[in-house]
Amino acid sequence: MRVLIVNAYDNMGGAARASYRLHQSLLEKGIESRMLVQNKFGDDFTVESYTTCTFQNIWEKCRTIADNFPVKFYKNRTKTLFSPSWIGFNNLVNQINTINADIVHLHWISNAMVKIEDLAKIKAPIIWTLHDNWAFTGGCHIMWECIKFKEECGSCPRLDSRKEMDLSRRIFNRKKKTYSKLSNMVVVGLSKWITNCVKESTLLKNHEVVNIPNPIDTNIFKPLDVKYARSLWNLPINKKLILFGAMSATSDVNKGFKELVGSLDLLNDKNIEFVIFGSSEPKEKQPFKLKTHYLGHLHDDVSLVSLYSAVDLMVVPSLQETLPQTASEAMACGTPVVAFGHTGLLDIVEHKKTGYLAKPFQEKDLATGIEWVLNSDNYRDLCFNAREKIVKEFDSSFIANRYIELYNKVTLSSKYDK
């Protein structure tokens, strides 16, 4: 079986890491997997970029700028990503069809990577794993409280629009027309929450949807000795360490840094220190009292494993998450997670068994959860349970097998439809 995994990047961002991990897992299972990306940062020969020369790279950057042009008319829009995906004129679909895979497995394909209408030109059956809300909304990647995707979008709160026939409605209608032509597409929701969203959406509710989470290689993500791990990072041995991290950890409003700061200010234990990855130390001092270690951006699994093993807990205070890999990675390393109990985090963290689920978005309860984990009499049980949860439900070998079953089902169905 020939599988083509398509994502904007190969190792930058959560969707990239997840899709590349799946690609590796499929190769280990003997599946003929290839990965096609817009921007390639690694050196894996099984990953190809369709931008192969300087001119194409410049052209892709110009397309990205042009694709975002319609959004600029909404002066009071929020800072969350909004993708029109209306610019064509690239060779992505042609290259997909030239590869002639049995399955085209789409992941995160925004950043002007593909024009919505071009999806209908893909010849092979499509499986689309959703890493955010964009596929079933009028353009937003994070919908938060908005439920207009259940109808037809318009008057978009992310655009601060008051008009029904706004950009979000026009994008919604383009998707509706295109998706009606994709009879051979199956949608994968990474969490129960986003799977239910898909089933409730106007755009995708008539497509088959299944729930399969991101894979974690538990042979790589596993506990290390705490003292050894802390020595690698030059972290104090005798302190309780709280870890927080993501891409743009302190600047992305969706990652909940503001709420976390409020929670940390409620902690009175002077033996606690704070560790941040995904952001470097800012020029201006951050407004919280705990001693803080800024570790900057991490780019490899070995660094992540040693860091997760060095701390006492991971806090994931996101306002919305499809299925946060920082939580599952930390738990695979035997580190309990404290998070707000909502969206995709409900699939990972089990309250007072593998961590603590605070009431959304109550800073006081988040602080209570941090203190509860740090002072728990059964802390070792929390650590053991956390890893067991990931090994049983998220291990890469298990997830790869689930996808292989789905690939076989889709290709067999497509064969009989011809």
TrEMBL record:
Q: Which UniProt keywords apply?
A: Transferase
Annotated GO molecular function terms are:
glycosyltransferase activity
Start and end residues of each Glycosyltransferase subfamily 4-like N-terminal domain: 12-219
Q: Which Pfam families match?
A: Glyco_transf_4, Glycos_transf_1
Listed InterPro entries: Glyco_trans_1, Glyco_trans_4-like_N
Q: Which SUPFAM superfamilies match?
A: UDP-Glycosyltransferase/glycogen phosphorylase
Glycosyl transferase family domain ranges (all copies): 253-381
Keyword Nucleotide-binding, does the record have it? no
From the Swiss-Prot or TrEMBL record, give the protein name.
Answer: Glycosyltransferase involved in cell wall bisynthesis
